[in-house]
Amino acid sequence: MRQIEAAIVGTGWCGGIRAEALSRNLLVSKLHIAENREERLREVEALTGAATATTNWRTLLDNPDIEAVYICATPEQNHFPMARAFLEQGRHVFLEKPLALTLEEGDELVALARRQGVKFTIGYSQRFSPKYAYAKKQVADGVLGDPVSVLISRHIGRGLGKKISGRVKLSPAAMEATHDIDFVLWCLAPARPVKVYAQEVRKVMAPVNGAPDCNWIMITMDTGVVVTIGAGWILPPGYPNFSSTWIEFVGSEGALMVDDTHRDIALMRMSQPGSVFPLSTMPGEYVGHVYAGAMAPETDAFIEAVIRDREPLVTPEQALLAMEVYTAADLSIETGEVVHLPLLRNPQAERLSLTLTEGVL
């Protein structure tokens, strides 16, 4: 099987994980990295043995041998211009969420990728978690019967919450619940969302940077299934970047409960009072010779999709639909109304034309 050259733009937390995964992937002949922090660049260069390392991501555009590019840069405002630049050159692009900051930008990227005939996907890594894959299979195999309702509660620590909400004005719906929106839409497909109602709470984070503490979202599917998703980022300090998720999937013939609260490993030490919960971050982490989590397998899967000429597990259209749902949630919070889907685009005004209805779901 042939090998390809790949590149990473942004080698922070997630980009660093992906860079290390690619450096271990036998299908990658050369790895190229771009990072605007010189110290971090040299650190990842040494760790991965990258063929080239630059502080200017545009340098990668000048290398025609690079076939696949992973865009992991922050702040998230960089996603659209970077992705567009590489897609225009016919490169295969893996883009961390969010897809874009507006639906119009998302539409443009998806259309561009299809027009260029390249692979384009978004980093919804939870699809690569065995627990989530198991839930998907149970629904697809009809084990639960006819889906009735879904409840998901996701929370992360306030240290990471402050970091995320401090660099970009995107809500917990856009930055956290988006993973769960994608997961539910994936499980329930071909059913589609038809209306969204959402609320937020502002007590802890608002005085710091104006961000909400959490969003709670209700989504009604065209099959009548009701989905409730809560996402927050103000848990007290704990294990670095701790993440806790609980899922209830109820059907006419069964129910599935998924405990992703990461309480299965507890570490206690005399030097640090209390317990910490290792291996509890959403991206996961390397543990010696193995990887605990979904991000490394997800990284490898995109390389395989490129080489085998297969559609990525997360299609750009699916990512765009998830974006439409969390955009509707943000709009529902702003207006206090139910928002009906699909959202209509208005290219001239570059704003969304919304169909709102009074009442609640």
TrEMBL record:
It comes from the Bacteria. Residues 5-124 form the Gfo/Idh/MocA-like oxidoreductase N-terminal domain. It holds the Pfam family GFO_IDH_MocA_C. SUPFAM superfamilies: Glyceraldehyde-3-phosphate dehydrogenase-like, C-terminal domain (SSF55347), NAD(P)-binding Rossmann-fold domains (SSF51735). Residues 136-341 form the Gfo/Idh/MocA-like oxidoreductase C-terminal domain. This is Gfo/Idh/MocA family oxidoreductase.
